[in-house]
Specification:
The complex is a heterotrimer of chains A (about 350), B (about 500) and C (about 150). Chain B has 21 helices and two strands. Chain B has about 500 residues and is mostly helical. The longest helix of chain B is centred in the N-terminal third of the chain and has 34 residues. With about 150 residues, chain C is an all-alpha fold. In chain C, α3 packs antiparallel against α4 and α4 packs antiparallel against α5. Classes of the chains: A alpha/beta (about 350), B mainly alpha (about 500), C mainly alpha (about 150).
């Protein structure tokens, strides 16, 4: 009996192996597997990372004629999965949080430029925003910077160690430049999800929250006497990015209105006029040893995908801005961003 | 009446398919409602918003309801929110009343489901405004209230509380997640464990490890003697189901559904807390709770009505604030964002048609769930007649799928399953109580976040008493709940002493 | 006066150390409870341990060591092999399928009492069909990621 069992097992193994190699041979030039797993650095399937990746991965899979699946395993799970897989069966999608975590020294965040290969960028979420209660005395970021200069404590609800904290750091840095020594008046209130940040604002426990156009726009249309009413004060994306969204903007707020909130001067350093801006960009990350042919293959397929209107419209409909840069270009670009923001974060540490 | 044009056969078909698939997912140990919704989320893109949501709501309602099946028949909760169903469901199944227990659960489920749909429809915006009155302080107190349940569920007070605290302790292993606003630093472990434990232990593998794998180990140890002689559960004998079970249960039904709806409404408190709270309140406040935990239908009524009431409750903040109330609605929100639909305080006003369709879908899903389960239950209940040498290997296999799939493919979660399977066996041997332990584990992380964040904001312990009238009311409830639990515990011990 | 009294309950949590705040409290409660348990039940401890040792060694009580440890060993092997094979067949679920067939078969054989020809057929069919259905439905239809 054991012999039969062993033979069945062997037969299964071989047939499975044949199945794999046969389907892998289907794409001759592309050394990509027929079943590609895309892990994302977020555990949420309702968030922008999942949204952006599923749109792109669907298109990519269609173009390459493979099966691809997005798995919301979260940052650590995704980095681990990527590390283990040298053959390019698993690739990762994440945003600027991947290097910002390292810059902020969050435990467990590796240096992505050293440990992984940065792949193409494909979309920007232009919605990263800061909001105040509708009846707040602060009309603009200038008001907030001035108030901090006049020894008013400004409490800002953020999620620490990532995209959410970056704008906060830039604000703190701006106060440091305009009113040296007063930057400690900008206080972080560390919290988690968007719901928690909103709740702190409803409680009156903070003055400003980090949020997004997508999640918070409806709150800005509530009447002022509603406890939940909010107002945008700042979009971190530059005007050029927001200009690429659909003209209708989001909800009842038009693109033109949104542009006003982006037109904010947040100085970055004493010796230059450059204002701080930040685009939350989504890009691929690969295992360090992934075959260059596979990298090129994804680059080419994505270039083809972005030639067509379909993907651009799909992204824009969900308030994302198409932003394709092939690997080499993307890698340099992300490194540049990394260095730029490192300066701000380091200045504040001192 | 634009809305009628959406009520296509496709719409109804998708609800039916969703409900059926949901029930199956819920009924398989290891697979949950959340997983069913997550798996089908990508499909919704092709269906369009209304049909997509119809499918997902069917899955949600079906999944939560299906969880009672293994809870009653195998003593393994199919979803975390059906833990309390095991307390009375399994003893009833052992007495040969599995079918009766399941039918009681199904009726309670549809009551809870429709109750919460009605609450959602009539009061959503008002309730959402009430829910945002609950800041970190009040949420911590709600969790504390749910933790007092431990005192009323354990058979030995000291061991029960110890087990509960141990559960909380185990849940804290890992990092203080920055996703929750923590600082991302690891604690309660050695450096070499950090690679695996950075995200801590996940709830589902722990739960199915302690309930599923432990059950297998305990039976393996006896060499399956029970399989042929005693202990073999039969379907015959025992009382048959009749609606008479519900005589005098109206208060229980309404109270439990109310608790389920309300706890579902509070983002971050967690769905499983709902049925736990409802169960313990029934135990504390009903006229006769002496049979609860030994196979009393009233326990199933409270557990099942509250966990189905969760569905409507969790949709309240989702649809009127854009904030998901539990882990399943957190995935549901993806169906809206994938279509580029904003959910926020203006959602209902801006999308009246969709809003009505959601309510209709929710009601239909509940009715279909009832129809499917009520008449299929006779066949489903036969599962316990499958010999264990066939059933158990399959249960372990499905637990593996569940553990692996819950975080979309993490092998460590499978090892967690084994670890806690063995731990559950040891706990059983040394007298630790697994139910308080699991409740502590479920609530531990949120307890930490709300406790620490409250203190970070206010800087004084007294805030827990002085924050708001709601806080004071919650303290009164906590005190009453504890007093009842201790009183019942002492009374039961005396009774036991007298009997022996 | 009142404010002085309240200030007794003042607490400041340093964010860098905030990950230890709550775990410390819980650990202390746990230690105290453990102490209480040991104090009230220490008399049961030593005999209990002795009994457990004898049972595990198979010298006392009814303890089916073959099935109990067999379950543990098979489950461990199952999980281990699944991890190994999933590197051989990535993202297809084949590893789950193959390991499950072997595991379900072996565990059934371990658990079953008296073997008859008919039982063997049932067990073999079950071990082949059930994992295949699970794999097909979950990995192929629902596209769930399996090992």
């Amino acid at each position: 009996m054991k012999a039969i069992w062993g033979k069945t097992c062997l037969a299964m193994l071989t047939s499975a192996a044949i199945g794999v190699s046969a389907s892998a041979q289907a794409q001759d030039e592309c050394p990509l597997p027929s079943n590609l797993r895309v892990v994302i650095g977020s555990t949420s399937t309702g968030g922008d990372t999942y949204q952006a990746s599923s749109i792109i991965v669907d298109q990519l899979a269609e173009k390459l004629d493979i099966n691809a699946k997005v798995d919301a395993v979260g940052v650590m799970g995704a980095f681990r999965a990527l590390e283990r897989d040298r053959r390019g069966n698993t690739i990762m999608v994440f945003h600027d949080g991947s290097y910002l975590g390292n810059l902020y020294g969050v435990n467990g965040y590796p240096d992505i430029f050293e440990n992984y290969k940065v792949g193409p960028t494909f979309a920007i979420n232009p919605g990263n925003a800061y909001l105040v209660p509708k009846d707040s005395p602060y009309q603009s970021m200038d008001d907030i910077i001035e108030a901090a200069g006049n020894d008013k404590k400004i409490r800002v609800a953020i999620q620490p160690g990532g995209v959410s904290e970056l704008g906060f750091s830039a604000l703190k840095n701006a106060v440091r430049l305009k009113h040296p020594g007063k930057e400690s008046n900008i206080v972080a209130v560390n919290t988690g999800s968007q719901a928690d940040k909103n709740q702190l604002l409803f409680d009156g426990a903070v003055d400003v929250i980090n949020g997004s156009v997508q999640a918070n726009e409806q709150y800005t249309n509530l009447p002022e006497d509603d406890q939940k009413a909010m107002r945008f004060v700042w979009l971190t994306s530059p005007e050029e990015t927001i200009a690429q969204t659909n003209e209708e903007g989001m909800g009842k707020t038009t693109r033109e209105q949104l542009m006003q909130y982006a037109d904010v001067d947040i100085p970055m350093s004493a010796d230059s006029d450059e204002s701080f801006t930040f685009d939350k960009e989504f890009f691929f990350l690969y295992n360090k040893d992934m075959d260059q042919a596979a990298v090129d293959c994804i680059d080419n397929a994505l270039a083809d995908v972005f030639e067509e209107d379909e993907v651009n419209e799909q992204l824009k409909r969900t308030f994302l801005v198409p932003d394709f840069k092939p690997s080499t270009e993307a890698s340099e670009w992300i490194q540049q961003k990394n260095e730029k923001y490192e300066t701000i974060i380091d200045n504040l540490k001192g | 009446m634009d809305i009628l044009s959406h009520l296509t056969p496709m719409f109804f078909g998708l609800i039916a398919a969703g409900t059926l698939i949901g029930i199956i997912f819920g009924a398989i140990p290891g697979m949950t409602a959340t997983m069913a919704v997550a798996v089908c989320l990508p499909l919704t893109y092709a269906f369009g918003l209304e049909n997509g949501v119809a499918l997902l709501l069917g899955l949600y309602v079906g999944g939560i309801s299906g969880g009672m099946v293994p809870a009653v028949l195998l003593n393994i909760p199919g979803t975390p929110s059906s833990i309390c169903t095991t307390f009375d469901g399994y003893p009833m199944a052992q007495k040969g009343e599995g079918e009766r227990a399941l039918k009681t659960g199904i009726v309670a489920s549809i009551f809870g489901g429709l109750f919460s749909a009605a609450v959602l429809f009539f009061f959503a915006p008002v309730l959402a405004d009430f829910a945002i009155k609950f800041s970190n302080v009040e949420k911590f107190l709600i969790i504390l209230l749910a933790l007092t349940v431990i005192a009323s569920l354990c058979s030995n007070l000291l061991m029960g509380i110890f087990s509960g605290v141990l559960g909380v302790w185990l849940s804290l292993i890992g990092t203080y997640s920055i996703m929750e606003g923590g600082n991302g630093e690891p604690r309660l472990m050695f450096d070499f464990m950090e690679y695996y434990l950075i995200d801590g232990f996940s709830l589902l593998p722990v739960l199915i490890g302690i309930f599923g794998l432990t059950t297998v180990l305990l039976d393996a140890e006896t060499g399956f003697k029970g399989d042929s002689e005693r202990g073999r559960i039969s379907l015959k004998g025992g009382k048959k189901f009749s609606f008479g079970v519900f005589k005098g249960q109206l208060t229980n039904l309404i109270r439990s559904s109310g608790i389920g709806t309300f706890v579902g409404m509070l983002p971050g408190v967690g769905g499983s807390a709902a049925s736990v709270l409802a169960y313990s309140q029934e135990k504390n406040f009903s006229r006769d709770s002496s049979q609860m935990g030994k196979g009393a239908p009233q326990g199933i009524v409270s557990s099942e009505s509250s966990n189905n009431a969760l569905t409507g409750g969790a949709l309240v903040p989702l649809l009127s604030l854009g904030i998901p109330g539990d882990s399943t609605t957190a995935i549901l929100i993806g169906a809206f964002t994938l279509q580029g639909i904003q959910v926020g305080p203006l959602f209902i006003g801006n999308n009246m048609d969709t809003w009505y369709l959601i309510i209709i879908a929710l009601i239909i899903a509940n009715v279909l769930m009832f129809g499917i389960m009520y008449f299929a239950i006779r066949h489903i209940a036969k599962v316990i007649e499958v010999p264990k040498y066939i059933l158990y290997p399959l249960i372990i296999m499905m637990c593996v799928v569940g553990a692996y799939a819950i975080n979309y493919g993490i092998m460590f979660d499978v090892w967690t399953l084994l670890l806690f399977g063995i731990f559950g066996w040891v706990a059983h041997k040394i007298g630790l109580e697994t139910v308080p332990l699991i409740i502590g584990f479920i609530l531990g992380k949120s307890a930490e976040v709300y406790f620490v964040k409250s203190l970070e904001s206010y800087g004084n312990y007294s805030i827990f008493f002085t924050k708001s009238p709601i806080a004071v009311i919650l303290w009164v409830l906590i005190a009453v709940s504890l007093a009842f639990a201790i009183y019942l515990n002492i009374r039961n011990r005396r009774q036991a002493a007298v009997e022996s | 006066m009142e404010s002085q009294w309240l200030s007794l309950f003042d607490v400041t949590i340093d964010f860098d150390q905030s990950h230890l705040f709550f775990p410390r409290i819980v650990t202390w409660i746990l230690v105290i409870l453990l102490g209480l348990i040991l104090v009230t039940r220490y008399r049961l401890l030593v005999p209990g341990l002795k009994h457990a040792g004898r049972v595990l060694a198979g010298r006392e009580g009814e303890f089916d060591r073959k099935r109990f440890f067999g379950t543990l060993v098979l489950t461990t092997l199952y999980f281990y092999m699944m991890g190994v094979l999933s590197d051989v067949f990535p993202n297809t679920g084949y590893s789950f399928l193959i390991c499950s067939i072997v595991f379900v078969f072996s565990l059934s054989m371990l658990y079953v009492g008296q073997l008859s020809r008919r039982l063997v057929v049932i067990i073999v069919l079950n071990a082949l069909i059930a994992p295949a259905i699970a794999w097909y439905v979950l990995a192929q239809l629902f596209r769930i990621t399996l090992p």
